[in-house]
Amino acid sequence: MNFNTTGEHSADFKELRKQKIERIEKILTAYLPKEEGYQRVIMEAMAYSLMAGGKRLRPMLMQETYRLFGGEGGVVEPFMAALEMIHTYSLVHDDLPAMDDDELRRGRKTTHVVYGEDMGILAGDALLNYAFETAASAFEEYPEESLRIGKAIGILGKKAGIYGMLGGQVVDVKETGHSVEKEVLDFIYALKTGALLESAMMIGAVLAGAKEEEIRIVEKAAGKIGLAFQVQDDILDVTSTAEVLGKPIHSDEKNEKTTYVTLLGIREAEKVVEKESVEAVELIRGLSGKNPYLEWLLGELIHRKK
Amino acid sequence: MNFNTTGEHSADFKELRKQKIERIEKILTAYLPKEEGYQRVIMEAMAYSLMAGGKRLRPMLMQETYRLFGGEGGVVEPFMAALEMIHTYSLVHDDLPAMDDDELRRGRKTTHVVYGEDMGILAGDALLNYAFETAASAFEEYPEESLRIGKAIGILGKKAGIYGMLGGQVVDVKETGHSVEKEVLDFIYALKTGALLESAMMIGAVLAGAKEEEIRIVEKAAGKIGLAFQVQDDILDVTSTAEVLGKPIHSDEKNEKTTYVTLLGIREAEKVVEKESVEAVELIRGLSGKNPYLEWLLGELIHRKK
Question: Which of these, A186, A271, A284, A199, lies nearest to A230 by C-alpha position?
């Protein structure tokens, strides 16, 4: 399987990725609310958490899938911002004292440490709510695409909620400190990590006018990417160093977490990453459109060292 | 001003109100997710908080405004459920230890006391997210009404978020323990209490196909109802008894809260209630449609003793 990670275009793609991240951050900034009014502290807390860096993976996958299906308009942009707001709200609430109680994220103080626990809760709520406001703003800007926008909002909601990311988070929290069976672990991974990636790629496809069958293929591919991504995370937690990873290693062992590595061992876990990622890229390549950058990106994500 | 509260129809309207509340609770139950799957605890927590009783004021105002403008279909029902979910999530998060730290609400243990603080946070998140999923489900059920549904989702988001209820909550939390000027108090009341009532009546109007100008009138009336309702709350806190009110009295004084009563005194506060409610009903009566039950209900709300 050639993911092009060492091919002649790899350096170009890496540069392209940087530019794309910059462009995405401009979109996020544009969709953030103005910091004004008696409630401006909450707008500040929203910006603080949303503009904290990161791979911007979800909006990027959405945009690239949109392009894969020939999408060329701006209607995808509010949805890119909305999805990143949802991802960010989940991090803000995860970090709260009653949840993971984390004081640092990517080397910066977490939102509740800077703004207080009450504002941490409200900032997460605000981002989740504003995500739907941002997505719904597309109705006004692109009224002729109302049907696609309505469908995309439905996907955004479902994949973020109790049948998606939030449902996975609930089970993850509930099972903390217990060892879990593979079936439950797969459930957690599919929902907590997979669902927002599915949402990203499905919304890109829907907004570009993909057929129902193509949307199902994209969903399946994204699910495989999510699983490969998460298992790679499990592997890096035992094989990488804190320097390379930018966060503490052996955290799963410390937290007594069941992972693919604890269940299957490193070698079998690596096979899962390879199998799922190969199948995901094959699914994408089987579609009528082409997006070489997207294929390269998927390889990068899965074979990443951090 | 005759609100019909003591008129010949008052007993009938009271009975009708009971029936309507029962019907609304059936709708809420129907739109709640099935309690199943590894994440079922969160569905239980959602049902626990949503089905805890109450006046069901917001869905009722939405439905009655929908009828006022001649609405007869079922498209309003997912929105009634969605709005009550949003109202409920705000109560669940308000009660958290990092916020008001309340252990009882309407005589029952609050959600985080029963399910734990982590699940309390997640149950609120789940209700907020599911509200938008529920509203978006209308696209599938009523595709021919997509434009109105899109507009209604926009209103739902805006009136719940940082420019609505959540924005009011932020300022209320921020100013707790400080005395505030009337301008700030009006801001808090308009957003924290008024915005969801505006949302209720505006969405009812939008879904029934009301004109832009009529929607603006309804918004204005709902804002006045919200202010009258909240000032009446301020008055009852000093004039009622804990028995009648079903919650502790003199809580504003204890919490050093600025209210209309502390700023203007009881007599002036009563004048505000009268003025705002009269103007609200006049605005509603000036519309082309008629809904005598709605007019009666508005009087009941404002002249209530609890």
Answer: A186
How many angstroms separate the CA atoms of A236 and B287, rounded? 65
**Whether A65 contacts A204, CB under 8 Å:** yes
Distance from CA of B126 to the nearest CA of A (A): 6
Alpha-helical (H) ranges within chain A are 10-31, 40-50, 57-68, 76-94, 111-115, 117-141, 146-160, 165-174, 182-188, 195-207, 212-239, 242-245, 251-254, 260-264, 266-285, 292-302
- Determine the Cα angle at A226 with ends A60 and A206, to 5°: 50
Residues of B whose CB is below 8 A from A41? 170, 174
Contact list in A for residue B39 (CB cut-off 8 A) is 162, 167-168, 170-171, 191
Of the candidates A106, A95, A2, the one whose C-alpha atom is nearest the C-alpha of residue A53 is A106
Would you say B208 and B70 are in contact if contact means Cβ atoms under 8 Å apart? Answer: yes
Q: A196 vs A82, A100, A115, B287, CA distance in Å?
A: 11, 20, 27, 45
Q: How many CB atoms lie within 10 A of CB B238?
A: 16
User: How far is Cα A179 from Cα A146, in angstroms, rounded to an integer?
Assistant: 46
> Could you report the per-residue pLDDT of B233-287, keeping only the tens digit for each?
999 999 987 777 777 778 887 778 899 999 999 999 999 999 999 999 999 999 9
The whole-angstrom distance between residue A174's C-alpha and the CA centroid of its chain comes to: 22
With an 8 Å Cβ cutoff, are B39 and A171 in contact? yes
The complex's ipTM works out to 0.95
Find tokens 């991504």 and name the residue: A229
**Which residue type occupies B195?**
A
- Residue B42: closest CA among A161, A95, A121, A88: A161
Beta bridge partners of A109: A104
B95 with B111: CB under 8 angstroms?
A: yes
Distance CA A218, CA A202 (A): 6
What is the rounded CA–CA span in Å between residue B71 and residue A105?
Answer: 50
Task: Provide the whole-model pTM.
Answer: 0.96
> What gap in Å lies between CA B21 and CA B31, rounded to an integer?
15
Closest to A281 in 3D by CA, of A225, A231, A226: A225
The alpha carbon of residue A194 and the mean position of all alpha carbons in its chain are separated, in whole angstroms, by: 8
